[in-house]
Amino acid sequence: MLRQAFLSMSNSRELQNVALHNRAARRFALRFVAGETLAQASRAIADLNKMGIKATFDQLGENVNSVEAANAAADSYIQILDKIVSTGIDSNVSLKLTQMGLDVDEEVCFRNVCRICERAKELNNFVRLDMESSSYTDRTLDMFRRLWHEAGYRNVGVVLQSYLYRTERDVHEMNDLGARVRLCKGAYNESEEVAYPKKSDVDANYARLTRLLLTEGNYPGIATHDSRLIEYTKKFAAARGIAPEKFEFQMLYGVRREIQTDLVQQGYNTRVYVPYGKEWYSYFMRRLAERPANVMFVLSNVVKR
Ligand code: FDA
Description:
The chain is α/β, with parallel strands linked by helices. The chain is 53% helix and 13% strand.
Protein backbone atom coordinates (compact mmCIF):
# COMPACT_ATOMS: atom_id res chain seq x y z
CA MET A 1 0.00 0.00 0.00
CA LEU A 2 2.62 2.49 1.15
CA ARG A 3 4.85 1.46 -1.75
CA GLN A 4 2.07 2.10 -4.26
CA ALA A 5 1.17 5.43 -2.69
CA PHE A 6 4.75 6.66 -2.94
CA LEU A 7 5.14 5.38 -6.48
CA SER A 8 1.95 7.21 -7.51
CA MET A 9 3.20 10.38 -5.83
CA SER A 10 6.49 10.05 -7.72
CA ASN A 11 4.60 11.15 -10.87
CA SER A 12 2.95 14.24 -9.35
CA ARG A 13 4.23 17.59 -10.66
CA GLU A 14 2.48 19.48 -7.80
CA LEU A 15 4.15 17.40 -5.10
CA GLN A 16 7.44 17.71 -6.92
CA ASN A 17 7.22 21.51 -6.66
CA VAL A 18 6.48 21.31 -2.94
CA ALA A 19 9.25 18.77 -2.25
CA LEU A 20 11.91 20.66 -4.20
CA HIS A 21 11.37 23.63 -1.87
CA ASN A 22 11.17 21.64 1.37
CA ARG A 23 14.49 21.76 3.22
CA ALA A 24 13.97 18.52 5.17
CA ALA A 25 13.04 16.55 2.03
CA ARG A 26 15.96 18.06 0.14
CA ARG A 27 18.40 17.23 2.93
CA PHE A 28 17.15 13.66 3.12
CA ALA A 29 17.21 13.29 -0.68
CA LEU A 30 20.91 14.14 -0.57
CA ARG A 31 21.43 10.82 1.21
CA PHE A 32 20.60 9.14 -2.09
CA VAL A 33 21.82 11.83 -4.49
CA ALA A 34 25.49 12.82 -4.76
CA GLY A 35 24.83 16.55 -5.09
CA GLU A 36 23.32 18.85 -7.65
CA THR A 37 26.41 19.44 -9.83
CA LEU A 38 28.72 17.30 -11.91
CA ALA A 39 31.69 18.44 -9.81
CA GLN A 40 30.02 17.26 -6.58
CA ALA A 41 29.11 13.90 -8.10
CA SER A 42 32.65 13.45 -9.45
CA ARG A 43 34.06 14.04 -5.96
CA ALA A 44 31.62 11.49 -4.52
CA ILE A 45 32.77 8.98 -7.14
CA ALA A 46 36.44 9.70 -6.41
CA ASP A 47 35.69 8.89 -2.75
CA LEU A 48 33.99 5.62 -3.74
CA ASN A 49 36.93 4.75 -6.00
CA LYS A 50 39.30 5.22 -3.03
CA MET A 51 37.38 2.40 -1.31
CA GLY A 52 37.76 0.20 -4.40
CA ILE A 53 34.19 0.81 -5.61
CA LYS A 54 33.49 1.59 -9.28
CA ALA A 55 30.58 3.84 -10.24
CA THR A 56 28.00 4.62 -12.84
CA PHE A 57 26.91 8.23 -13.30
CA ASP A 58 23.24 9.04 -13.63
CA GLN A 59 22.21 12.57 -14.46
CA LEU A 60 18.76 12.81 -12.91
CA GLY A 61 15.87 13.62 -15.21
CA GLU A 62 13.21 11.71 -17.09
CA ASN A 63 10.31 12.34 -19.44
CA VAL A 64 11.59 15.49 -21.14
CA ASN A 65 8.99 17.12 -23.37
CA SER A 66 11.00 18.96 -26.02
CA VAL A 67 13.70 18.17 -28.55
CA GLU A 68 15.85 20.95 -27.03
CA ALA A 69 15.66 19.41 -23.55
CA ALA A 70 16.49 15.95 -24.93
CA ASN A 71 19.48 17.28 -26.88
CA ALA A 72 20.68 19.21 -23.83
CA ALA A 73 20.46 16.04 -21.70
CA ALA A 74 22.57 14.17 -24.27
CA ASP A 75 25.11 17.02 -24.27
CA SER A 76 25.36 16.68 -20.49
CA TYR A 77 26.17 12.99 -20.83
CA ILE A 78 28.97 13.82 -23.25
CA GLN A 79 30.31 16.26 -20.66
CA ILE A 80 30.11 13.51 -18.05
CA LEU A 81 32.13 11.15 -20.25
CA ASP A 82 34.76 13.85 -20.75
CA LYS A 83 34.79 14.59 -17.02
CA ILE A 84 35.46 10.92 -16.28
CA VAL A 85 38.59 11.18 -18.41
CA SER A 86 39.75 14.57 -17.10
CA THR A 87 39.37 13.51 -13.45
CA GLY A 88 40.61 9.94 -13.93
CA ILE A 89 37.68 8.46 -12.01
CA ASP A 90 36.46 4.89 -12.60
CA SER A 91 32.90 5.20 -13.83
CA ASN A 92 30.61 4.49 -16.74
CA VAL A 93 27.20 6.10 -17.39
CA SER A 94 23.53 5.11 -17.07
CA LEU A 95 20.73 6.97 -18.81
CA LYS A 96 16.98 6.90 -19.28
CA LEU A 97 15.59 6.92 -22.82
CA THR A 98 12.71 9.24 -21.87
CA GLN A 99 15.39 11.77 -20.91
CA MET A 100 16.89 11.41 -24.40
CA GLY A 101 13.55 12.21 -26.06
CA LEU A 102 11.85 8.81 -26.47
CA ASP A 103 8.40 10.31 -25.93
CA VAL A 104 9.12 13.35 -28.11
CA ASP A 105 10.62 11.75 -31.22
CA GLU A 106 12.20 8.29 -31.43
CA GLU A 107 14.68 9.40 -34.09
CA VAL A 108 15.89 12.26 -31.90
CA CYS A 109 16.27 9.78 -29.05
CA PHE A 110 18.20 7.32 -31.26
CA ARG A 111 20.54 10.05 -32.52
CA ASN A 112 21.14 11.31 -28.98
CA VAL A 113 21.98 7.88 -27.61
CA CYS A 114 24.19 7.18 -30.65
CA ARG A 115 26.13 10.40 -29.92
CA ILE A 116 26.69 9.25 -26.35
CA CYS A 117 27.64 5.68 -27.34
CA GLU A 118 30.03 7.05 -29.97
CA ARG A 119 31.81 9.32 -27.48
CA ALA A 120 31.90 6.49 -24.94
CA LYS A 121 33.40 4.19 -27.58
CA GLU A 122 36.13 6.73 -28.39
CA LEU A 123 36.91 6.90 -24.67
CA ASN A 124 36.67 3.15 -24.15
CA ASN A 125 33.68 3.56 -21.87
CA PHE A 126 30.25 1.95 -21.50
CA VAL A 127 26.63 3.15 -21.61
CA ARG A 128 23.78 1.47 -19.75
CA LEU A 129 20.14 2.02 -20.70
CA ASP A 130 18.12 2.11 -17.48
CA MET A 131 14.73 0.41 -17.62
CA GLU A 132 11.66 2.49 -16.86
CA SER A 133 8.06 1.36 -16.30
CA SER A 134 6.59 -1.56 -18.29
CA SER A 135 5.00 0.79 -20.81
CA TYR A 136 8.58 1.44 -21.97
CA THR A 137 10.01 -2.09 -21.90
CA ASP A 138 9.40 -2.91 -25.57
CA ARG A 139 10.49 0.52 -26.77
CA THR A 140 13.64 0.40 -24.64
CA LEU A 141 14.58 -3.04 -25.96
CA ASP A 142 13.77 -1.97 -29.53
CA MET A 143 16.09 1.01 -29.12
CA PHE A 144 18.75 -1.26 -27.65
CA ARG A 145 18.43 -3.61 -30.68
CA ARG A 146 18.85 -0.66 -33.06
CA LEU A 147 21.97 0.46 -31.20
CA TRP A 148 23.34 -3.07 -31.27
CA HIS A 149 22.39 -4.24 -34.79
CA GLU A 150 21.91 -1.07 -36.86
CA ALA A 151 24.55 1.18 -35.29
CA GLY A 152 26.85 -1.69 -34.27
CA TYR A 153 27.62 -0.53 -30.74
CA ARG A 154 28.94 -3.17 -28.36
CA ASN A 155 29.64 -0.77 -25.48
CA VAL A 156 25.95 -0.56 -24.56
CA GLY A 157 23.90 -2.68 -22.16
CA VAL A 158 20.38 -2.86 -20.75
CA VAL A 159 18.56 -3.31 -17.47
CA LEU A 160 16.01 -6.10 -16.97
CA GLN A 161 13.57 -6.35 -14.06
CA SER A 162 12.75 -9.58 -12.22
CA TYR A 163 9.21 -8.44 -11.31
CA LEU A 164 8.07 -8.72 -14.96
CA TYR A 165 6.77 -12.09 -16.17
CA ARG A 166 8.40 -11.54 -19.57
CA THR A 167 11.95 -11.07 -18.33
CA GLU A 168 13.23 -14.64 -18.66
CA ARG A 169 12.64 -14.40 -22.42
CA ASP A 170 14.51 -11.07 -22.54
CA VAL A 171 17.41 -12.52 -20.55
CA HIS A 172 17.72 -15.35 -23.09
CA GLU A 173 17.77 -12.88 -25.97
CA MET A 174 20.44 -10.69 -24.34
CA ASN A 175 22.55 -13.71 -23.39
CA ASP A 176 22.39 -14.97 -26.97
CA LEU A 177 23.59 -11.58 -28.21
CA GLY A 178 26.35 -11.41 -25.61
CA ALA A 179 24.92 -8.12 -24.33
CA ARG A 180 25.62 -6.96 -20.80
CA VAL A 181 22.57 -6.99 -18.53
CA ARG A 182 21.99 -5.32 -15.20
CA LEU A 183 19.40 -7.32 -13.29
CA CYS A 184 17.23 -5.48 -10.76
CA LYS A 185 13.87 -6.24 -9.12
CA GLY A 186 12.05 -3.25 -10.64
CA ALA A 187 11.05 0.06 -9.10
CA TYR A 188 7.72 1.07 -10.69
CA ASN A 189 4.04 0.57 -9.95
CA GLU A 190 3.01 -2.35 -12.15
CA SER A 191 -0.25 -4.26 -12.56
CA GLU A 192 -0.72 -7.97 -11.95
CA GLU A 193 -1.18 -8.32 -15.69
CA VAL A 194 2.52 -7.80 -16.29
CA ALA A 195 4.33 -8.22 -12.97
CA TYR A 196 4.45 -10.63 -10.03
CA PRO A 197 2.40 -9.05 -7.25
CA LYS A 198 4.12 -11.06 -4.50
CA LYS A 199 7.62 -10.08 -3.36
CA SER A 200 8.52 -13.74 -2.78
CA ASP A 201 7.87 -14.43 -6.49
CA VAL A 202 9.92 -11.41 -7.57
CA ASP A 203 12.79 -12.66 -5.39
CA ALA A 204 12.52 -16.25 -6.65
CA ASN A 205 12.56 -14.99 -10.24
CA TYR A 206 15.58 -12.82 -9.38
CA ALA A 207 17.47 -15.93 -8.25
CA ARG A 208 16.41 -17.86 -11.38
CA LEU A 209 17.50 -15.04 -13.72
CA THR A 210 20.76 -14.61 -11.82
CA ARG A 211 21.59 -18.25 -12.53
CA LEU A 212 20.90 -17.74 -16.25
CA LEU A 213 22.99 -14.58 -16.39
CA LEU A 214 25.92 -16.06 -14.49
CA THR A 215 26.06 -19.24 -16.55
CA GLU A 216 25.18 -17.89 -20.02
CA GLY A 217 25.53 -14.10 -19.88
CA ASN A 218 28.24 -11.55 -20.45
CA TYR A 219 29.53 -9.84 -17.30
CA PRO A 220 26.11 -9.33 -15.67
CA GLY A 221 25.46 -6.65 -13.05
CA ILE A 222 23.68 -8.17 -10.07
CA ALA A 223 21.94 -5.04 -8.81
CA THR A 224 20.36 -5.59 -5.42
CA HIS A 225 20.80 -4.73 -1.74
CA ASP A 226 19.08 -7.94 -0.73
CA SER A 227 21.58 -9.81 1.47
CA ARG A 228 19.96 -13.17 0.78
CA LEU A 229 20.26 -12.75 -2.98
CA ILE A 230 23.81 -11.45 -2.69
CA GLU A 231 24.80 -14.51 -0.64
CA TYR A 232 22.95 -16.74 -3.07
CA THR A 233 24.87 -15.22 -6.01
CA LYS A 234 28.23 -15.72 -4.30
CA LYS A 235 27.47 -19.34 -3.41
CA PHE A 236 26.06 -20.21 -6.83
CA ALA A 237 29.06 -18.65 -8.63
CA ALA A 238 31.55 -20.42 -6.36
CA ALA A 239 29.79 -23.79 -6.76
CA ARG A 240 29.84 -23.43 -10.57
CA GLY A 241 33.45 -22.25 -10.67
CA ILE A 242 32.42 -18.82 -12.01
CA ALA A 243 35.21 -16.42 -11.07
CA PRO A 244 34.38 -13.11 -9.34
CA GLU A 245 35.83 -11.25 -12.37
CA LYS A 246 32.95 -12.58 -14.50
CA PHE A 247 30.24 -10.43 -12.89
CA GLU A 248 29.75 -7.43 -10.65
CA PHE A 249 27.47 -6.44 -7.81
CA GLN A 250 25.73 -3.11 -8.18
CA MET A 251 24.05 -0.94 -5.56
CA LEU A 252 22.58 2.51 -5.21
CA TYR A 253 24.41 5.49 -3.76
CA GLY A 254 23.66 5.84 -0.06
CA VAL A 255 21.98 2.43 0.35
CA ARG A 256 23.59 -0.27 2.52
CA ARG A 257 27.08 1.18 2.31
CA GLU A 258 28.46 -1.42 4.71
CA ILE A 259 27.66 -4.22 2.24
CA GLN A 260 29.33 -2.29 -0.58
CA THR A 261 32.65 -2.13 1.25
CA ASP A 262 32.36 -5.71 2.54
CA LEU A 263 31.97 -6.99 -1.02
CA VAL A 264 35.06 -5.12 -2.18
CA GLN A 265 37.04 -6.54 0.72
CA GLN A 266 35.88 -10.03 -0.22
CA GLY A 267 37.25 -9.49 -3.74
CA TYR A 268 34.01 -8.86 -5.66
CA ASN A 269 33.68 -6.19 -8.34
CA THR A 270 31.26 -3.64 -6.93
CA ARG A 271 29.71 -0.68 -8.71
CA VAL A 272 27.56 2.05 -7.22
CA TYR A 273 24.91 3.97 -9.16
CA VAL A 274 25.54 7.64 -8.49
CA PRO A 275 22.70 10.00 -9.40
CA TYR A 276 23.15 13.76 -9.30
CA GLY A 277 21.29 16.86 -10.40
CA LYS A 278 18.37 19.05 -9.48
CA GLU A 279 15.67 16.67 -10.76
CA TRP A 280 15.87 14.36 -7.76
CA TYR A 281 12.16 14.16 -6.88
CA SER A 282 10.95 11.03 -8.79
CA TYR A 283 14.14 9.11 -8.05
CA PHE A 284 13.88 10.00 -4.36
CA MET A 285 10.22 8.93 -4.15
CA ARG A 286 11.08 5.54 -5.63
CA ARG A 287 13.75 5.11 -2.93
CA LEU A 288 11.20 6.03 -0.23
CA ALA A 289 8.78 3.50 -1.68
CA GLU A 290 11.37 0.75 -1.31
CA ARG A 291 11.74 1.10 2.42
CA PRO A 292 9.08 2.25 4.91
CA ALA A 293 11.83 3.21 7.39
CA ASN A 294 12.93 5.92 4.95
CA VAL A 295 9.44 7.40 4.98
CA MET A 296 9.32 7.41 8.77
CA PHE A 297 12.68 9.16 8.88
CA VAL A 298 11.52 11.95 6.56
CA LEU A 299 8.18 12.36 8.35
CA SER A 300 9.82 12.56 11.76
CA ASN A 301 12.17 15.26 10.47
CA VAL A 302 9.30 17.26 8.98
CA VAL A 303 7.31 16.96 12.23
CA LYS A 304 10.35 17.99 14.33
CA ARG A 305 10.53 21.17 12.28
P1 FDA B 1 14.61 -5.08 -1.64
O1 FDA B 1 13.72 -3.95 -2.02
O2 FDA B 1 14.00 -6.37 -1.26
O3 FDA B 1 15.58 -4.57 -0.51
C1 FDA B 1 16.47 -5.43 0.18
C2 FDA B 1 17.02 -4.65 1.36
O4 FDA B 1 17.85 -3.59 0.90
C3 FDA B 1 15.95 -3.96 2.21
O5 FDA B 1 15.47 -4.81 3.19
C4 FDA B 1 16.70 -2.78 2.77
O6 FDA B 1 17.47 -3.19 3.89
C5 FDA B 1 17.65 -2.42 1.66
N1 FDA B 1 17.09 -1.37 0.80
C6 FDA B 1 16.56 -1.53 -0.44
N2 FDA B 1 16.18 -0.34 -0.94
C7 FDA B 1 16.47 0.57 0.00
C8 FDA B 1 16.32 1.98 0.06
N3 FDA B 1 15.80 2.70 -0.93
N4 FDA B 1 16.74 2.62 1.20
C9 FDA B 1 17.31 1.92 2.21
N5 FDA B 1 17.48 0.58 2.19
C10 FDA B 1 17.06 -0.09 1.11
N6 FDA B 1 14.94 -0.23 -11.06
C11 FDA B 1 14.33 -0.11 -12.27
O7 FDA B 1 13.12 -0.34 -12.38
N7 FDA B 1 15.07 0.26 -13.38
C12 FDA B 1 16.40 0.48 -13.31
O8 FDA B 1 17.03 0.81 -14.33
C13 FDA B 1 17.05 0.32 -12.06
N8 FDA B 1 18.39 0.52 -11.92
C14 FDA B 1 19.00 0.16 -10.73
C15 FDA B 1 20.40 0.21 -10.63
C16 FDA B 1 21.01 -0.26 -9.49
C17 FDA B 1 22.52 -0.25 -9.43
C18 FDA B 1 20.25 -0.75 -8.40
C19 FDA B 1 20.88 -1.29 -7.17
C20 FDA B 1 18.88 -0.73 -8.47
C21 FDA B 1 18.24 -0.26 -9.62
N9 FDA B 1 16.85 -0.23 -9.70
C22 FDA B 1 16.27 -0.04 -10.94
C23 FDA B 1 16.03 -0.33 -8.48
C24 FDA B 1 15.57 -1.74 -8.19
O9 FDA B 1 14.65 -2.16 -9.16
C25 FDA B 1 14.94 -1.86 -6.80
O10 FDA B 1 13.81 -1.04 -6.72
C26 FDA B 1 15.85 -1.50 -5.64
O11 FDA B 1 17.16 -1.90 -5.87
C27 FDA B 1 15.38 -2.16 -4.33
O12 FDA B 1 15.38 -3.55 -4.48
P2 FDA B 1 16.45 -4.54 -3.82
O13 FDA B 1 16.88 -5.48 -4.89
O14 FDA B 1 17.53 -3.79 -3.18
O15 FDA B 1 15.62 -5.42 -2.82
